[in-house]
């Protein structure tokens, strides 16, 4: 499916800003088809990550101690990487919330939902991904300058995730390819219509990153 660039969305948002409340489907094009109707009240309030660009600019202040612990799934997370943060500055709240709500529903269909999925990061560098009654062990390291967690596990090696932590909440984001690899690996599902839809959502926009909202 053809991706939409951030700048194209930004131009549309500026052009139709006066009718954003009533015409979101037309503004966001195929995003509206995927996610249905949304209004500005659906903004991603409380999101820890405005954009990946902001995150890697040195604002994260991550340490191994802030990452260490057991983190439980609380929903999907979406952000964008852009040199000028075009979409983030213009419509990040509406766009993020719209995509996240759609993604939440499809992730739940493959068992990634509250109480069934999460991450444990130990201070000794070991970790595990929890999925239902299953546990996938591995190791992790933190790059504080780039705000990235590098994870290695038997079934999916070299997973790099961007992380932000604040007040007992974490957002852990990946590029679309890595996100799909995680979903397929933990669920042991590789071919079905739900995965096809998830992949379409993740690849709808250039420079879109997806992952998980987590709580301790």
Tell me briefly what this model is.
With 216 residues, the chain is of the alpha+beta class. Helix content is 36%, strand content 28%.
Label this structure with key terms.
216 residues, 36% helix, globular, eight-stranded antiparallel beta barrel, alpha+beta, single chain
Describe the structure.
Helix content is 36%, strand content 28%. By secondary structure, the protein is of the alpha+beta class. The protein has an 8-stranded antiparallel barrel with strand order 1-2-3-4-5-6-7-8. Helix 6 packs antiparallel against helix 8 (193-202). The longest helix is centred in the middle third of the chain and has 24 residues, at 86-109. Mean pLDDT is 77; it is low at 6-45.
Secondary structure layout:
Layout: H1 6-15, H2 24-27, H3 30-35, H4 52-59, H5 64-67, E1 69-80, H6 86-109, E2 117-121, E3 126-131, E4 134-143, E5 148-153, E6 159-166, E7 169-174, H7 176-187, H8 193-202, E8 208-215
Antiparallel strand pairs: 1-2, 1-8, 2-3, 3-4, 4-5, 5-6, 6-7, 7-8
